[in-house]
Amino acid sequence: MKEIIKLNAKNLSLLPKEVVTPAYDRAKIKAGIVHIGIGGFHRSHEAYYVDKLLEHNGSADWGICGVALLDNDRRIFDTLVNQDGLYTLMITEQDGTLNARVIGSIIECLFAPSDPKAVLEKMADPDIKIITLTITEGGYNFDVATGEFQITEPSIHWDLNNPGNPKTVFGYLTQALKHRRDRGISGLTIQSCDNIQKNGHVLKKMLLSYVKEAEPGLISWIEKEVTFPDCMVDRITPVITPSDIENLKNVYGIDDAWPVVCEPFIQWVIEDNYSNGRPEWESVGVQFVHDVSPYEKMKIRLLNAGHSLLGFSGSLYGCSTIDETVRIPLFGSFLREFMDIEVTPVLGEVEGINLEDYKDSLIQRFGNPNIKDKLSRICLESSAKIPKFLLPTIKEQLKRGGEIKRSIVVIAAWCRYLELAGTQGYDYDIEDKMGVVLSNNAIASISEDPLAFLKIETIFNDLVHSKHFVDIYLPIINSIRENGIAETIRHLNQIVA
Ligand code: CS2
Question: Minimal CA–CA distance to 103: which of 156, 183, 38?
Answer without folding.
Answer: 38
